[in-house]
Amino acid sequence: MHLTKEEEKIFNGEKGEVLERMFRLLVRLGDIYGADKMLPVGSVQVAGVSFKSIGMPGLEFLEDYAKKGAKVKVLTFLNPAGMDLESWKEIGFPSDFAEKQIRVMDAFREMGIVVTSTCTPYLAGNLPRFGEHIAWSESSAVSFSNSVIGARTNREGGPSALAAALCGLTPNHGLHIDENRKPNIVVNVDVELQHNADFGALGSFVGKIVKDKIPYFTGIKNANTDQLKSLGAAMAASGAVALYHVENLTPEARFMDIKGLEKIKVCEKELKETYAQLNTGENPDIVILGCPHASLREISELAEKIKGKKLKKPLWICTSRIMKECANRMGYTEIIENAGGKIVADTCMVVAPIESMGYKTTGVNSGKAANYLPGFCKQNVVFNNIDELIKVIK
Ligand code: F3S
Questions:
Q1: Helix (H, G, I), strand (E, B) or coil at 287
Q2: Which residue intervals of the chain bear CATH 3.30.499.10?
Q3: What is the reported pTM?
Q4: Are 348 and 80 in contact (CB under 8 A)?
Q5: Whose CA is nearest to atom 3 of ligand 1?
Q6: Rounded mean pLDDT of the chain?
Q7: CATH class entry, domain 279-393
Q8: Is the CB of 80 under 6 A from ligand 1?
Q9: Does 173 sit in the ligand 1 pocket, CB within 6 Å?
Q10: SS3 for 149-175, per residue?
Q11: Which fold does the domain 5-178 belong to in CATH?
C-alpha cells in the first residue's frame, strides 16, 4: 500500500505509541483487503460501547488509551451504550453495571469522542454527504449511510473504527470503490408494504437469501426514511448487507445496470412466512420499539397512538438523546409517560441487559431486533406492527 510521508512517520512510531498501533492495524487490514492507499474520512461511528459487549477487558483498553492521551482527529459518534445515561436508575438498570458503563463513556469523552450514543447518528448531528468517505461500525448505520445517503463506508469493527477516528484515515477498499457498489441480485417486491414492520420482515427474508450481496429492489413504490432504515437494519442482521439500492428511491439506483442479474421475487406468502418465523413467543412482558433508534416522526406517531391510554405492561421506545430532548419539548414524552411508557435514550433492547432485568418475552416491530433478541438477550420474540403490539399490552 502506498503511504504518504506523513503516514510513514505514524507507521514508524514518530507520532507516538498509540497512533502507531492504531495505524498499523489499518495498514494490516488494508493489506488483507488489497487497499492501494489510505483515504481521509469525514466522520467515524464507533461500536463496542455497551459494557455488556466489551466487558472489563474493553473498559481497561479504553481507559489505557485515554490515559495515554489518544485523541480523535474527526467527528466521532458512538453506538448505543448499555443503558440510558441519565435515567438509568429510574428505569431499573443495575448500579454495578451503570458504574462500569459510566467509566466507558468517560474514557471515550477523554479521547474527544462525542458521547452521544446512537445507531442513527445521521439523525443526531453526524450527517455525511453523498460520496463522502466515512468509517462507521454499526451495521444499520452503515447500511443507511451507504444506501440512503450515498456515503461510502465498509462495515468497520469497533477497533478499526476507533483506529480510523484516531488517525482520520481508512484503507481504500470494498465499498469505498465505485466498482464495488454495483448490485449483484435483483429483488422484485410483489407485495404491498404497509407498516415499518413489513419492511423489517422483507429485510429479514432478503438478508437470509442474499447474505453479503448488494440487492437492487424493484416494486417498492414508496418508502420513507424510517422504513428504509428498518429494511436496511433487518438485511444487515439476517444477512450481511452493507449496501442496497431501491429503484427510484435511493440515490445511486439510477446509475446501476441490472440487465442479466440473478432475480428473486418476494410475495405475500414469503412475507407472512417471515412474520411466522420471527415470532418465537406470545404475551410480551415488555414492548420495545426504536430499532434502529426512533426518529422524531416515529416517537410522535407512537405518542398519538397511546395518547390517553393506560398500558398494562412496560413499553419503551429507544432513541438518541437529541431526539428525546425534542420529544420533551414537543410534549411527546409526557404523553408516552402518562400512558405508562418510557422514552429510553442512549441504549437499545439488544445492548441493554434486559435479560437480567426480568424480561423473558419482548414485543418488537423491528426485523433486526427480532433476529438478535433470542441470541443476544435470551428473549422470546413477538414480532408485529405497532398497532398490534399496543393491543396486547393495553
Ligand atoms: Fe440500533 Fe440496537 Fe437496533 S444498535 S439497530 S437499536 S439492535
A1: strand
A2: 5-178, 279-393
A3: 0.97
A4: yes
A5: 291
A6: 97
A7: alpha beta
A8: yes
A9: no
A10: HCCECCECCHHHHHHHHHHCEEECCHH
A11: Aconitase; domain 3 (3.30.499)
